[in-house]
Each structure stands twice: as C-alpha cells, then as structure tokens.
Amino acid sequence: MTAADGAVPRLVAVNLLGVVEHPALGDTPYRVNRDGRSYVPAGDGGIVMDLRLGDSVFGLDGDHAAPGACLVHPDPASRHALASYACIGNPARVRTGRAAGAQGAVVGKRGEEGRVIVAFGQDDLARLRPGDEVAVRARGQGLCLPALPPGVMAMNLDPDLLARLPVDLSPGGDAGGLTVGVRMSVPSRLAGNGIGRPAVAWDLDLQLPPPGPGGAGDLALGDLVAVTDLDARYNMGYRRGWVTVGVIGHGASPLPGHGPGLTPVLTGPVAALRPVPDPAGHAGLTAAMLKLQ
Amino acid sequence: MNVTTNAARLVRQVLAGEVWPALADRHAYRVGPDGQPFLLPGMGGVTLGVHCADPATGYASDHLEPGASIRHRDPGANMALQFLTCVGNQVRVASGPAAGAVGHVIGQHAYVLADFPDQAAADLAPGDAVTVLATGQGLALPDHPAIVVKNCDPGLLARMPGGTRPDGRLEVHVAARVPAEAIGAGAGMISEYANTDLMGAYQGLGDDLSLGLEGLRIGDVVALADADHRYGRGYRDGYLAIGVISTGQCMLFGHGPGPSTLLSGPADAFCLVDDPEANLAAWLHEAGAGPR
C-alpha cells in the first residue's frame, strides 16, 4: 500500500520486553539543586508507590518521580528501541514474579538512556519487584490519521487512546484546525532537558515553578500541556508559529533545567493545532481511560 | 578585568588527553529542522581553518568544533579532564609531528576544544597526546559574592575588559545578547561539562527558525538572558549566564553554536557593555591565525 493509493499505511504492533528498573546512584548520593544545596534524589526511576495519574506533579519531594514503574532493558540499543516504540496507552503485561499477569498501560517515557513509564493498579504495583519482566505491546509510531489537519503530526500515542483524550477530531469548525483541551500553555523558553532531542524517544522537562505566589497554576500527572513555538516533528526545537502538545508523565525535579516531563503527542502549526487551556476543569490522561484498577 | 580574585590560591594541575577521532555510525544520516537528512563533518578529530573571531555559522558542518577535540581514554580520568580544564588553559602537543606546538582551550563540548595555529593543526591527528595545564575551577570574586565563576583560566579573566565598577556591579563586555528562547540542547546539564547549544542561528534556513543569532563568531563572549548556570543550567528569571562561543554551525534541530559558561549570577550584579570586540581572539588568539 502506498500513499499513491490514497490509503493510510497500517500500523505495526511489536511486543517488546522491558525490565522493571532499580534506581541507581553513583558513589555519592548527592545531587545539587537549583539553589546550590545538596539533596538525595528519591523516586528517580524504579517503582514509585502512591503516586497516581491526577496527582500534582509537585505533591512529593521526589526527583522525576513517575506514577508506577519505569521499564528499561539491560542492552542499551534494546533500551532505546523500547523507549522509542512504546506509546502512551499501549498495554503492558507483567510476565514474571508475584505480579505476573497484571495489566498496566504506558503513560509516558523518559529520555537519555531511555525509560518507559507504566502505570499499574496500586495492588499490582505493590507486588512488582525490580527485575520483573514486562511485555509492552508497542503500537503508534507512524500514526497517520486522515482526520488530522495538514501539517499536524502525531507521535508517542496509541491510536486507540486518541479518541478518549480531549482532542476534537470533528472536521471543519469555524476557525478550522484541531482543538485540544490542555491544562495550560507554556512558552518555549521554559523548555529544559529534552530540547534538541528526538521527540519519539525523549520527554521534555518543563521548568515550571510550583504553584503559589509568583508561580503558575498546579499541574497534574496525565495532564495535557501545550508548548508554544516548539516544533517536535524531528528533534524538539524552537520554531515560531508552531505548537506541541504532550502528556505529563513524571513529576518535578530539584535539578536546574529539569521539571515535570512532557511526552509529546501532537505537533503542528498554530493555524492547524489549537490548544484550549482550562486551568481548573481540564482532565487529561486518566486511570479510568486506561482501565487501571 | 579589573577585579579582585583568589587566583593566587588556585591549584594548577598537569592533565593528559589525546586528540579524539570523529565518530559516526553505519546509518550515517541525522535530521535537520525541516526533516532534511544530512551527513556533515565538524565533531571530533582536528577541524581546520576555523578559529576564534571567524564566523560561527555558514559552514557545511554540524556541531563544528574548531581545532582539536580532546578526551582521555579512561572514563574517570576523562571526566576529570572535562571538568577541570578551563577556557584559556594552555595545551601543549606531546607526541606526533606537531609535538611542542602550543594552543589554548576555547571551551568544552563533551570534548576539550583546543585551538592551535593553522601550521600546527595541519600536523595534528587523532591519537596525538596533548598536555593540559589545568587551572581555574574554584576561581572566585570576593567583591561579587553573588556571581559564580567557572571554566575560566584566571589569566583569561585578567585580560578581559571590564571589572568592578564604582556602583559595585561587575562590568562584562559582550559581543551578543541571547534570548531565553534560544536555549537548546544542554539545558539541564551541569555547567562544567559541554556547552549550551543556541537555536535560532540556522543560516540559510527559514525565518521562522531565526532568533537573530546568525552573526555569532567563534570566541564571542555572549550573555544568556534568564539563565542561571551557577549549579547547572536552567531557566531563572532575572539571572544571567556569560559564556564564550566554543562550537559553531549545526544542522541538527534544537542545536546550534554553543557557549561554554564562564560567569553566572543575578542580572543586577552585572553591568553588560555591548562590544563587538568581546572575543577570545582579542585576548588569546590572533584572528584567523590561531593562538599567539
């Protein structure tokens, strides 16, 4: 099947193997925060309990804490493939250990060496152990929907999830283009770690202050957020008149240049992709949507 | 720079490195801002013909590293080399046909980058041993406690114009001012390692990519707005980072000419003076001819 047929190429699903990560530290436990004070990072990878989609990204004193378990692979190239092909909404099933058979879903990814964040029910998560094997049914990269306006590209998104997100795929509309409900829209100058990296394999840390005087509003895990003047089609980079929408997959970080992580799902010119912020009422990716316990 | 420092208390250390080869993989291509595939030289090896005061952009190159790109084979020793080497440190070639030639460090980019005169660079090749006289980390300005100095040879600081003003601020001459929107790859990294790629300097590509930075030169001292590099590299309203452009032309999206960090602190602790001559070439190198 080719583009000349006017047909959309069919997506391929691939079963990938991930291994539940154990957090790793160097010879010294300390990192240095943005004010120059040392701290011991907690929750930076591995299994994090009691953190769920819908919780504030600022709710725990963690470092990049993610809602569930991070998956990795001992072989670096396999790990990059896992992080690149896994898409938000993909099903994940535990294959070994006490939680064998438990079903979770991909809710985000992290860059650099590559991690896939999988949410589980808390009972399943409590039975999970670092080293357990989890199969991810990866499907979504290459997604090409006739409903998407010209110029808009989707990535990191299970095709079955798109209709459940606050994305208006109805054709037409007064202004044209695709409208997406988001918690907030942030300027590209707040883009931190992840800028200049491939959007299919990395998330973008947002350098957002916690809510309060001088801060922005609160932000929850699973929220959709728009970043203006950011083009994520190839690498993530500055382009005037573009916008990128993503899902918040992990929490804040004390490190300078780091913060809540956005896994990009849609990118396009502002005329074709229009985020609609709703600071109070927004609901993004939820556990119910993913059929988690 | 007319400023009191603790330079007399700094340690000088002899470090070893070698000129590192350019690296590629068998799939060859990377992807530009508009999806264009490219295969371009610039990183690793010895990049010839580009020196301080030369344009940073306008080359068929990616991540252009002027002069020799240097690492150490042992991972731990390499991190010490990368962290402890400072802009302005002397580098002497220790083996090969160019042995004895002297250059200077112009920055870091996960390699130590050293500029040599063309004649010496022509005889340099990957594998050649170099000796770095490392000094500068720990440099402090007692009269400017809010400003952190890093990656800066005290000799370089002494040669730079500016210094403590009667109003207590530190005067720094800069060739360009960079908006926060330009900060690309390198955000979130520690500020003693590699550099901060600046977007918006893709010469010859679309206006929607431009942030007006196409005129940068290698060696330019630049000021990054709303950047706090004291303990890493992050966005902070009302702070400044001062750096020296140590790498040039990029085609990879989200990347670009990059400053290695020299100074950072609250913006009101600085007095910036726009000065097109604020370039390493004015203090360490002759334009177009490598180091003096």
The CATH architecture assignment of chain B turns out to be: 3-layer Sandwich
Which spans of chain A of ≥5 residues are poorly predicted at pLDDT below 50? none
SS class of chain A = mainly beta
- What is the straight-line distance between the termini of chain B? 20 Å
Q: Largest beta sheet of chain A, briefly?
A: 6 strands, antiparallel, barrel
- The overall strand count of chain A is 18
CATH topology of the largest domain in chain A: Thrombin, subunit H
Structural description of this entry:
- The complex is a heterodimer of chains A (293) and B (292).
- Chain A has helices spanning 76-85, 122-127, 159-162, and strands spanning 14-20, 31-32, 38-39, 47-48, 68-72, 91-94, 103-110, 115-119, 133-138, 153-154, 167-168, 178-182, 184-187, 204-205, 224-231, 237-250, 261-269, 273-277.
- Chain A is globular, with a radius of gyration of 18 Å.
- Chain A is mostly beta strands.
- Chain A folds into two domains: 10-138, Thrombin, subunit H (Beta Barrel); 153-277, tm1086 (SG structure) fold (3-layer Sandwich).
- In chain A, the strands form four sheets. In chain A, strands 1-5-8-7-6-9 form a six-stranded antiparallel β-barrel.
- Chain B is mainly β and 292 residues long.
- Chain B has a single domain, classed as 3-layer Sandwich (tm1086 (SG structure) fold), CATH 2.102.30.
- Chain B has helices at 75-84, 118-122, 154-159; strands at residues 13-19, 30-31, 37-38, 46-47, 67-71, 90-93, 102-108, 112-115, 129-134, 148-149, 162-164, 170-174, 176-178, 221-228, 234-247, 258-266, 270-274, 285-286, 290-291.
- A six-stranded antiparallel barrel of chain B has the order 1-5-8-7-6-9.
- In chain B, strand 6 (90-93) and strand 7 (102-108) form a beta hairpin.
- In chain B, 55% of the residues are buried.
- Residues 286-292 of chain B have low confidence and may be disordered.
Quick rundown:
The complex is a heterodimer of chains A (293) and B (292). Chain A has helices spanning 76-85, 122-127, 159-162, and strands at residues 14-20, 31-32, 38-39, 47-48, 68-72, 91-94, 103-110, 115-119, 133-138, 153-154, 167-168, 178-182, 184-187, 204-205, 224-231, 237-250, 261-269, 273-277. Chain A is mainly beta.
